[in-house]
Amino acid sequence: MAVDANSSFIQWVIYIVQNYWPLFLRGAEVTLIISLTGTIIGFAIGILIGIIRTIPIDSNTHILKRAVYKVVNVLLLIYIEVFRGTPMIVQAMVVFYGVAMIWGIHLTTFAAGIFIVSINTGAYMAEIVRGGIISIDKGQFEAAHAIGMTHSQTMAFIVLPQAIRNILPALSNEFVINIKDTSVLNVIGVTELFFQSKSAAGNNYRYFEVFLITCLVYLVMTFTVTRILRYWEKRLEGPDVYTIHGSQTVPEAEIKIVGKK
Amino acid sequence: MENIIEIRHLQKYFGENEVLKDINFSVNKGEVVCIIGSSGSGKSTLLRCLNLLEQPTSGEILYHGQNILEHDMSNAVYRAKMGMVFQQFNLFNNLSVLENCTVGQIKVLKRSAKEAKKTAMEYLELVGMSGFIDARPHQISGGQKQRVAIARALSMEPEALLFDEPTSALDPEMVGEVLKVMKSLAGSGLTMLVVTHEMAFARDVARRVVFMDGGVIAEEDTPEVIFNNPNNERTRIFLKRILDN
Ligand SMILES: Nc1ncnc2c1ncn2[C@@H]1O[C@H](COP(=O)(O)OP(=O)(O)OP(=O)(O)O)[C@@H](O)[C@H]1O
Ligand SMILES: [Mg+2]
Question: Phi/psi at B59 (nearest 5 deg)?
Fold first, then answer.
């Protein structure tokens, strides 16, 4: 279909979709890969920092250990405050050009994109994970300690599984935010969806039509991802029925009980 | 008689507040000791010091004659030998009933999964919960939770079991099932230290009753003496108040 200045809005939209769909697709792909990888790495960073920031320190802890812990904690706090307190678009500029200037490392824009989203998400997740750990009932820690578990065992087998399940909605939320916010990476030339849209729009001087399509693509991504994650969270809650096994006396007895929620 | 734990001059401060004042006391193997006393007298704190959930401010806790506060022994190893049953059950919410009873055996005692399951099933059977191994803590009643918590502690095969008001958080109709399990344990020769407001249980099951008041052991004696003819005026007042209610 040929279009010109007199073509209607609908004609332009059809034209753009027909001619530029591979571009949108590639952009969406980059957006998804960067936001998914960034969310996962950011989550890992968050868990690590959350664990460190909840290590119990009291008057019995060795003085040297306490000093190291203090320093580490201050550094982590600075990291969290800086990345939560500045816009990601600015972080992208500072990191991308800073790394090149100071260390002479020329990251590909794709690698830089993943790096920035990861450390940005890490700063948010660190606080979310810490909150998740703190919110676990003290009785869970005490019961684990009472049967002789160490702090690390208690965290690994009892507390973190519960904390992580509780923060899954926040993690999903962070992923959706990242899908949208990776658009700022266009400032360093990452070829994500916004960047691709901009070139498609610029080629034709058709900003409204192009970005309306872009809008729709973002919406499809966030909507689908939200549904998938919600389904997954539900699955993780486990079944709400359990089987009563027969005791030695009545081995055949198997009764299904609908558990209370 | 072999004593498992002996406490000497145990003191515990919370800030400025002296909660335990020079406690001296010991528990012999196979003995059932009940600790009674009014709210805030330091019963829980004493129990929690005994398995190091609280760090005593000063004093000694001798375990088979060895002071665990000057540890040659790690806290974790010692704690595994002192089982604890909590008022609020504190079952691990992320684990099934069976896993609650195996996780400590596997991670702390380094038993194989098979061995751990066998031991766990033995004790779950004992408390009448072997049918519920797949249930999650939120799916069973309070009395059932507490029986699982007892099985979890027993699965570690501890030298002594500490109970902190194990029936206080239960609906009245569930108190009986838990006390029944505890009575049968006492009969089997398990060393037990029980903080309780169940005076009938203390009278029937304890070999010794300890009355705590204001952070000190005001009186300790056989249940007959404590309940029928206490020497200390404060014991008398406490019991009168409890039994009148
Ligand atoms: N972690 C803590 N920090 C500060 N004070 C505490 C702490 N735990 C207990 N206390 C104080 O220590 C005193 C004794 O408390 P404890 O829990 O040992 O009493 P208790 O005899 O078990 O009472 P109850 O019958 O109500 O359970 C109380 O005055 C309490 O306020
Ligand atoms: Mg108490």
Answer: 110, -175
Q: What is the pTM of this model?
A: 0.88
Work out the number of other CB atoms within 10 angstroms of the CB of residue A35.
29
Helices and strands (H, E) in chain A, number of each type: 9, 2
Nearest partner of A179 among A212, A220, A210, A207, judged by Cα? A220
Cα→Cα distances A7→A4, A15, A17, Å: 5, 10, 15
CA–CA distance, B224 with B241 (Å, rounded to integer) = 18
DSSP A7: -
Ligand 1 atom with the smallest distance to the CA of B87 is: 27
Task: Determine the Cα–Cα distance for residues B163 and B160; give it in Å rounded to an integer.
Answer: 10
pLDDT in tens, B27-55: 999 999 999 999 999 999 999 999 899 98
Query: A139: nearest CA in chain B?
Result: B90
Q: Which two tokens stand for residue A173?
A: 């939320």
Count of other CB atoms within 10 angstroms of residue B182: 26
Alpha carbon separation from A124 to A49, A50, A83, A168, B181 (Å, rounded): 11, 11, 8, 14, 48
Tokens of residue A138, six digits: 């003290």
- Write the residue in B77, B133, B134 that is nearest to A148 by C-beta: B77
